[in-house]
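Subject: Sanity check before I submit

Could someone independently write out the structure tokens for this chain? I want to compare against mine line by line before I put it in a report. The sequence has 191 residues.
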Amino acid sequence: MNPWLVAAKSALRSQTRTRRKALPLEVRAAAAAAIADRLGGLDLPAGAMVAGYAAAGSELDPSLALARLAARGHPLCLPVVVERDQPLEFHTWRPGEPLVPGNGARVPLGGALALPDVLLVPLIAFDERLRRLGQGGGYYDRTVPALRRIRPLLAIGIGFATQQVPLVPGDARDIVLDLVVTEDRLVTRAS
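---
Independent answer below. Compare away.
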């Protein structure tokens, strides 16, 4: 990878993580509720399998959104890192079911293998072009194209408005999301 790109991404990760960590808990909770409301307003296909994630550190916690989506009849699944440098796997999960440590994230205990129709994607930063900066492992950059080779997929970035930046540096390996949902707005390709 281009050394300039590596340095630019690293600097941006540091800046936006600092902003994200500075958000007070009550602001985070209000943002998570607003994002759950916005996601609930999307016209998702009936019964679409939705993949979320178990929040780590200062990531936006999608648990309220996932619970509401499950209540609307959407089956859920969560990502599992099976092998480094490979796409993620997804295992079925229901709100309240236990999660266990697994390769850097909390993952479902058991759960059948699943293929999501909708993917809620965590992010460190995003821009108006719907480019996303993640943790740096490339898991979602490998997973989204792999899933799209199998079936249609709606990739939705979710995060705090403060994570938006003018430009996310990237190359052809970096995914472009279909939309981003923050507490303030819905960012689409037409925005």
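---
OP: Matches mine. For the report I'm noting this point. The mean pLDDT is 94.
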